[in-house]
Records
---
Amino acid sequence: MFRLVLLLPLVCWLLIARTPRTRVRIAVPLTLLTLFEAATLEGWTLHNRPAFATFIAIHLSVVALLIWGMATETEAGVLDPLRKYLGWTATILLSVILLTTSFLTALFLVGA
């Protein structure tokens, strides 16, 4: 069940994005970051132990991609007001959740 949470940024992005070109430009890196995060959580990378710096880097990259994607969609003018509001709200909430998760993971791994 927890692994489904890793797909949350990608699913939200695919629901919000309207232009096909921007959808693909953001979805491909988000998918790769999600796969790398899952592999790191499973211990398949980084010498069989997750590193907190990796989680922070992944989550910062996801946040940057989501903000860039929403800015691009907003600038293109293809979003109706409700979709724009929901998109920015989801981006901000996901950013807070991801960054909080990565820093708590970092504190847990450093403290362990």
---
Amino acid sequence: MMQAKNQYPQPIEYYVVTTCCRNFVWSALDYDSLLLSLHFRGYTPTFIMPYEEYLAEMELADEYLKREEERELKEPA
């Protein structure tokens, strides 16, 4: 029976906003390596969230706004 080859850790994508108002999707192996990488490149993060979670929240926000717009259109002025 063959042994499985060594598996390298998969990077995680993070949504990052910095003090200079830049928005990034930045890959890192974990949160600590993300912070080190950002610091090494001269960025100070003000907001960090795993990118998948960020996309899910943005999708929910879009759905909410669409429902609100539809509700406003249905209500008489």
---
Amino acid sequence: MGKKDEVRWDVPLDGTEAHAVSVVKKQMKKSGLTPNDAGVRKLVREVRKSAK
């Protein structure tokens, strides 16, 4: 079995959290997914924290 494909989102590191959440939600919708607000906020926070 091969490695499972990973989906990567382009999370803006600048600006407000609300803007970053909006950008990621748009990416997910464009990919055919229905984003969960709380899940997207958690993702944005984790990515931004690890980028510091």
